[in-house]
Amino acid sequence: MSVTTDHAVADEEAIRSESRAWKKLKANKSALVGFVIVAFFIIIAVAAPLLPIADPAATSWSAIRKAPSAAHWLGTDEIGRDILSRMIWGAQASLMAGVVSVFIAVLIGVPFGLLSGYFGGWIDQGISRATDALLATPFLILAIALAAFLGPSLTNAMLAIGLSAMPIFVRLTRGQVLSVKTEDYVEGARAIGLTDLAIMTRYVLPNVFAPVLVQATLTVATAIIAEASLSFLGLGQQPPDPSWGSMLNVAKNFMTQAPWMAWWPGAAIFLVVLGFNLLGDGLRDALDPREG
Amino acid sequence: MLSYIARRLAIAIPTLILVSIFVFVLQKLLPGDPALVLAGEERDPQVLEFIRQKYHLTEPILYQYFYWVEAMLRGDLGVSLRTNQPVLELIADKLPVTIQLAIMAMIIAFMIGIPTGILSAAKKGTPVDYIANIVALSGLSIPNFWLGIMLIMLVSVNLGWLPASGYESPFIDPVRSFQTMIMPAFVLGTALAATLMRHTRSAMLGVLKADYVRTARAKGLRELVVIIKHAFRNALLPIVTLSALLFGELLAGAVLTEQIFTIPGFGKLIVDAVFTRDYAVVQGVVLCTAAGFILMNLIADILYFLLNPRMRSAL
Amino acid sequence: MRKQLLAALLLGASSVLTPALAADLRIGLQEDPDVLDPDQSRTFVGRIVYASLCDKLVDITPDLQIIPQLATDWSWSDDGLTLTMNLRQDASFHDGTPFNAEAVKANIDRSQNLPESRRKSEVKSIAGVEVTGPYQVKFTLKAPDATLLAQFADRSGMMLSPAATAAEGADFGAKPVCSGPFKFVERVAQDRIVLEKFADYWNKDAIHFDKVTFLPIPDTTVRLANLRSGDLDMLERLAATDVASVKSDSKLQYAEAVSLGYQGITVNLNNGERGDNPFGNDPKIRQAFSLSLDRDAINQVVFEGVFAPGNQPFPPTSPWYDKDYPVPARDVEKAKALLKEAGYDSLDVEVQVANNPVQTQLMQVVQAMAAEAGFNVKLKSMEFASLLADQSAGNYQGSQVGWSGRVDPDGNIHQFMTCKGGINDSKYCNPEVDKLLDEARQSTDNAVRKAKYDAARDILIKDLPIIYLYHQTWIWALSDKMEGFIAYPDGMIRLENVKFK
């Protein structure tokens, strides 16, 4: 079998399984709901500059902490800015913080977990010890130190969150690989002389997918909330630019005087988290190799 | 098994050394001069000089690390730069608080997360599944401070049922200790419950499709028996690993929850120490939480082997 | 599970509702104090505990007059180089050590010579302390120092038991022994500090509590919730935004006093390379910046009108405030004109600010106001230790910081505005100002001093190395069962004559 045909077959297979997955995903109602929620927020975030809303930084001294009204649908914040507008602009920062940082974590964490679980030995020892050390280091110390290196910005916040979320993906992947490694089909693949890379990508990785996806959709939520604590440390979104996390953070001080300041970013985070998790469920079912 | 545990404990030592180096380097990279923070508002040059000398702040970082290691080997973790209290004493004060909070939070997380996870997997795709999902995820996405302040306002201020905040040792006054801890444990527990629930659901779904569950069903066993006895036992594996990890994280302290409920645990101690550049405290506490974390990992791995018959042979 | 929980709740409810002992006072603090050694400590919140724990040589009245405490009376020599103090003869320390002239000498010696002492700069004018009688001391000074008595009204004047300091050395803070109305019982870091009544206190008839517990509760909302639920009897530093709800609550009382300190924007004039920019080089631009701000609106928006707008290191209520320069009204047109005169239509300015929500809110208001005059303010929100390091190293353009304030006016101005001032982070240097501020230090005649400070203000109001914004107001909330509490501008809680109704 030549190299080219090998590729062609693999591609064809990929396409077939992809379209099958897509069909299954579409048939899954809750996944569709999740998709709609996530898509809605992404569209809003992208379209923010085009929407007919107030300037998110425009202050008004006569409208400090006003409850929702016709003029300000979601009310105003502690220096008289329109919360609706800040929610929409803040969606950009928060979705980015949630998705990009989890992406960083998965992109680094999963390969290391694979290597560690698959090869074992000193590779496993090295990666596991480093992971343990990272997991045992408080998030805050990591975050402030990164701020010192790179200077405060949203990008660096995402990096810090991603790095601190990474070890859990290493552990999760490693654990999964360990339990799959002894399965008959992996042993079989090795017996027929497939390369390690081929075994890992074809047989091991798909089994890792489900728990990683579940963890990833959950981590999106913690990442969005972590952005809040980082903006509080001066490492996240810089004022006056909004993010849901920093809005929540400020709202904390006005829980009794202006409760709506916490409602909206809280509700938005809840919806996005729900959306990502429903979508994650659907993806998990659709991509699960164990299902026929 | 015993030799395995011994081997794992031996491995813990390089990890701890790695953590201590890692934290030490990170701390030294932090901007801000501890002498400036500690000298007080006037920043008297004599005081600045004295502090820098006393804590070896101007010497190369390698020397500083060795001073610390050398003292630690003598059992001296140093004193807090901020309060002059010995770090060991601080840790002894806070550790029981943190452990108590972590255990109570874990219990609450289990009580919420596992039943909802099983229920939602068993009734997948039904309204029960959706509701269980929404309940669990709200626990994750409702900010801790919000839930905390709401609980204080409702339970303490309006109803007067529980003290608003503070801490009491269970050995001095167990009832009051329970009262002061139950709200923060609930706040932490609900957030963890979501993670537990999602993983339980995921694991259960995987197991419920397995042949032996089908067989059990085919044998005409009651659905509840199938789910609990056959499915859940096998789904336990990832849940146990995860729980140990979550518990390990709890040991590092829950900053925001501790702050809201004024619980004197590790979280608050570490954050204050980082902000005031109280190196000795950061170093000592991180070492302690890291040791706890590694211990929990070890327990997770042992359970993993015990629960997974296929792995037992690989030992 | 729910049933069990409910049962536990109900079981607990009864014991929570039992009232605490009648004379057991619980005070909520905003932070956990640092080391409890007056010679070593550096936090404001620590001083609140000292007010109950450690008596001082002298005290202040709410309008900042110096009055006797451990010293009964004192006199200055004509050249201002000698201060003779007569001491109280009925005072003793918590460990039974008698208080006398030898104790004072030992205490000043410790403030000056303990390596860990943070008080050195406060007592550096003292050349020697002479015991001229069992209850009389004579301080000889290197140069006349009008600020010394005010220092004795604070940590430098707190008297620690010489027996305890000799035994404990730098570890005195683990179990402080002073001579105040309450003695130290225990401290659990970040949880509580417990004091009990000192039975042999010289003024014990004025003390009506058997026990005082200080509880650090950093979250302002939770601190207030504790007061409302009865877990606290009083708290310090109520959030300005909670004032309205406390005032309208019939179960609570409210007290306030404008602080001695200030908040402002320190501008880098000559502190390294970063001082070399239009904002640091041209006073006109700083005047324009100052004029672009509506200080009243800032106070209304951020502090509900509870704080005091300001433009000088002393609040407008202070006797040292220069009334020739009242808090300026906002004038955007004039600000624009000044900026234009300096050669700019618009100007980028970077200001660093501590990352707490209130200071960030403040600076966002400043940012929006200054924008209308052409200032494009970029905020750099930083964690305080980093901010302090950058500020002292000159790695900043503008820095939003404040000063907790001192009883003597010198403490609010000399170290910031003199060429060699210890905390002169803008590196402002004007020999004329140096001369005036040095002279103001040396006279014991307040009228002479006021004239010097006013003359310095004539210069500083134009140069603006610090753009003052406002003065914090200390706010206390108390349960309605308390009576006799008096608000002091130094923010301390003095428990003499305070009691439960």
UniProtKB/TrEMBL annotation, chain B:
It is found in: Cell membrane. It comes from the Bacteria. Keywords: Cell membrane, Membrane, Transmembrane, Transmembrane helix, Transport. One of its GO terms (cellular component) is plasma membrane. Its main location: membrane. Pfam families: BPD_transp_1, BPD_transp_1_N. InterPro entries: BPD_transp_1_N, MetI-like, MetI-like_sf. PROSITE patterns: ABC_TM1. The chain crosses the membrane at residues 9-30, 99-122, 134-157, 177-196, 236-261, 281-307. SUPFAM superfamilies: MetI-like. One of its GO terms (molecular function) is dipeptide transmembrane transporter activity. Residues 95-304 form the ABC transmembrane type-1 domain. It is a multi-pass membrane protein. Belongs to the binding-protein-dependent transport system permease family. This is ABC transporter permease.
TrEMBL record, chain C:
InterPro entries: Peptide/Ni-bd, SBP_5, SBP_5_dom. Residues 1-22 form the signal peptide. CDD domains: PBP2_NikA_DppA_OppA_like_5 (cd08511). GO terms for biological process: peptide transport. Residues 65-421 form the Solute-binding protein family domain. It is found in: Periplasm. One of its GO terms (cellular component) is outer membrane-bounded periplasmic space. Keywords: Signal. SUPFAM superfamilies: Periplasmic binding protein-like II. GO terms for molecular function: peptide transmembrane transporter activity. Belongs to the bacterial solute-binding protein 5 family. This is ABC transporter substrate-binding protein. It comes from Roseibium aggregatum.
